[in-house]
TrEMBL record:
Pfam families: PQQ_2
Entries under SUPFAM superfamilies matching the protein: Quinoprotein alcohol dehydrogenase-like
Chain ranges passing through the membrane: 5-24
Name the record gives this protein: Outer membrane biogenesis protein BamB
Lineage summary: Bacteria, Pseudomonadati, Planctomycetota, Planctomycetia, Pirellulales
Superkingdom in the source lineage: Bacteria
Composition bias, Polar residues: 54-64
InterPro entries: PQQ_b-propeller_rpt (IPR018391), PQQ_rpt_dom (IPR002372), Quinoprotein_ADH-like_sf (IPR011047), WD40/YVTN_repeat-like_dom_sf (IPR015943)
PROSITE patterns: PROKAR_LIPOPROTEIN
All copies of domain Pyrrolo-quinoline quinone repeat, residue ranges: 352-519
Positions of the UniProt region annotated as Disordered: 44-64
Organism: Bremerella volcania
UniProt keyword terms in alphabetical order: Membrane, Transmembrane, Transmembrane helix
Entry-linked PANTHER family: CELL SURFACE PROTEIN (PTHR34512), OUTER MEMBRANE PROTEIN ASSEMBLY FACTOR BAMB (PTHR34512:SF30)
């Protein structure tokens, strides 16, 4: 039956429509999915392309080699004559961590104010910026500028800028500012000569300024206290916008100043009205909360999946909730119960910065910590999202005589064995597989390359082949159905971003500024890159493809890459 659907995906569109119409309803859904996969991806309107967050666009003739060219040391101007397969280059700030998004003929990137595009904000003024460029030419169009919070680095780390990606739909976009605000903008800015929001001050309505439609200040209105920065790439289902608030610890890294503030919220994307809030991580937040939500219909139920700063994954019904509260479907502890949180990354317990990914009705997520905490023990999980309740792999119990009494989750360590506490298998576990270490060469020893380390990147999966990079510089290639490793490759530099799979190739950037290009393959013979191209500066973001163009942002510039640079 599967081969029939593949055939349907490649025949003419009229014939496909007639054939699909004759199928049973459940067959029609599968067939339509196959057709959609065969269509060339146009816009890439949010982090991961859609709310399932799997970075696998469809395109052909995407370059696997290029040269970025040189930049004039005095003016900073790009010297195109020395480049190969580069369509255009746009200057970003001095530090760029936001992933590019492409929609409405424009490209939107989070960065800082290093380029000083706005006259009233010269480059010496530190801002969080969302910058908009023309998709065809790379011309700067407009910028949203967020002045730094007066509280300083505890809430708004210097020079970090906007570290998330927006969600774009039609002529509107939604994003989280570095000041802890959710904002809705007009994608045209003020270039269309119209003011779409209530903000009338002429200082903010120049042609190169952002046109703000509405604002929710999560610090002021919800009591949130983000740690270091607020960073969430929002997503949407219908008219409901989902946001991780980034609520975290204070400068002591011990006290959570806003334990009653929400970690997760659902909003009306049209008005900014808050439908529901949830504070599940509560007093167990370890550090910050910088993950992004994922939305999919799983087991016939629309689910929004949040990764919490306590190291747990939470799934709620993706609707408006009831009386300001969501319906919790399941929750999962991403850490072994005996793992311990130690300040500065010296422990074995992790929070989750990566975005959960949905593939083949399964949820994939890795644990990790702030990159400043360095390398450490990691875990990658594949979960069944049709389970309900506590679906962790283990349960924490206290032994009292002949009885085992459940222990409520604790922030520092869930199970302290010397106190008579134990971790027992959970009969309701949602774990399909777990990857931490695997003796690939069968020598009875676990080597560096046979270990999953902390990761802040997401999984990328196609044809049951899963790729994920960790912060120790390893790119892991696994079987997405079983979790068995196919191979690992040492990039010799930390990876902050995630892999791109397109045109049967895999692209991944690293902190040294190298982008490695692999053949999409589970064969260990393909574990060496076809090309390794240096981008001239660290690549903290994830490569994307939209409308047949490959986009890669390094620390200071955005590159549009095409065959022949056309």
């Amino acid at each position: 039956m599967k081969s029939t659907y593949v055939y349907l995906a490649i025949v003419g569109s009229a014939c496909v429509g007639m054939t699909i119409a004759g199928l049973l309803p459940e067959e029609r859904v599968v067939a339509q999915d196959e057709v959609a996969k065969a269509e060339v991806t146009k816009d890439w309107p949010q982090w991961g392309g859609d709310s399932k967050r799997n970075n696998t666009p469809t395109a052909t003739n995407i370059p696997t080699s290029w040269e970025i060219g040189d930049f004039d040391r005095t003016t900073g101007e790009w010297q195109k004559e020395d480049a190969e397969n580069i369509k255009w280059v746009a200057a970003l700030g001095s530090q760029s961590y936001g992933n590019p998004v492409v929609a409405d003929g424009k490209i939107f990137v989070g960065t800082n104010n290093g380029s000083g595009y706005i006259e009233r904000y010269p480059s010496k003024v530190d801002l969080g910026c969302l910058v908009c460029f023309d998709e065809a030419t790379g011309e700067f169009l407009w910028q949203h500028s967020s002045e730094k919070l007066p509280t300083g680095r505890v809430h708004d780390w210097p020079l970090q800028g906007v570290c998330c990606a927006p969600y774009v739909e039609g002529k509107k976009l939604w994003f989280v500012t570095s000041r802890g605000e959710v904002r809705c903008l007009d994608t045209e800015g003020f270039r269309d000569g119209e003011n779409d929001g209530p903000y009338k001050d002429e200082e903010f309505t120049g042609e190169k300024e952002a046109d703000v439609i509405w604002v929710l200040d999560m610090m002021k209105d919800l009591g949130v206290s983000q740690h270091n920065m607020c960073s969430c790439s929002v997503t949407c289902r219908g008219d409901i916008l989902f946001v991780n608030t980034s609520n975290g610890v204070d400068e002591s890294h011990i006290v959570i100043p806003s334990t009653e503030a929400p970690s997760f919220i659902a909003m009306d994307k049209n008005t900014g009205e808050v439908y529901w809030t949830d504070k599940s991580p509560h007093t167990n937040i370890l550090h910050g909360q910088w993950s992004s939500p994922t939305v999919a219909e799983l087991g016939g139920v629309p689910q929004v999946i949040f990764a919490g700063g306590d190291g747990w994954v939470y799934s709620f019904k993706a609707d408006k909730g009831t009386d300001g509260k969501p319906e919790l479907l399941w929750k999962f502890d991403g850490n072994p119960k005996n793992s311990k949180w130690v300040l500065g990354g010296r422990g074995t317990r992790n929070n989750i910065i990566a975005t959960p990914v949905v593939y083949d009705e399964k949820v994939y997520v890795a644990v990790g910590q702030d990159p400043e905490h360095g390398e450490g023990e990691g875990h990658l999980w594949c979960l069944d999202p049709t389970k309900r309740g506590d679906v962790s792999s283990e349960l924490a119990m206290k032994i009292e005589g002949s009885q085992r009494v459940p222990i409520e989750h604790r922030r520092i360590q869930a199970v302290i064995e010397e106190d008579g506490e134990v971790a027992v298998p959970n009969p309701n576990s949602a774990v399909i597989w777990h990857y931490s270490t695997y003796d690939q060469d069968g020598d009875g020893k676990i080597e560096f390359e046979e270990t999953m380390h902390r990761s802040i990147g997401t999984c990328t999966i196609k044809d049951d082949i899963l790729y994920i990079a960790d912060f120790s510089g390893l790119l892991h290639c696994l079987n997405a159905q079983t979790g068995k490793p196919n191979w690992t490759y040492d990039m010799f530099a930390a990876a902050w971003g995630s892999a791109l799979i397109v045109d049967d190739h895999v692209y991944i950037g690293d902190e040294d500024g190298d982008v490695a290009v692999f053949k999409l393959s589970a064969d260990p013979d393909d574990a060496e890159p076809l090309e390794e191209i240096n981008m001239g500066n660290s690549v903290y973001s994830t490569p994307i493809v939209a409308n047949g163009v490959l986009y890669i942002a390094n620390k200071t510039h955005l590159f549009a890459i095409t065959e022949g640079g056309e």
